[in-house]
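Fig. S4 source data, part A: sequence.
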Amino acid sequence: MNTMDKINKFRDDRDWRQFHNEKDLAISITLEAAELLELFQWKSPAEVRESSIERIKEELADVLIYSHMLASNLDLDIDEIIEAKLEKNNIKYPVDKSKGNKEKYTELS
């Protein structure tokens, strides 16, 4: 059973599909991402890694689960949409201009 099948089984066993429309899933992604971000507030990345790695895993998993469910609702293949985005990013951020450079693509010279 793949990850999406496991997520759907968990949801379907509880009859939660009725609550998982695209709007609410998008909201849930944002809320869970905020909970992940909150772990880092006022701390260095090293402090958070040392003290909160389990919480990071949990919040990141929530973001990914809701993202998978949103993609499933929209009949989007996660591997395909990531591949397409990487191709676009490869054009926007060519290695010769971007390597070691944090600038946004609109600011690359």
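Fig. S4 source data, part B ends here. The mean pLDDT is 95.
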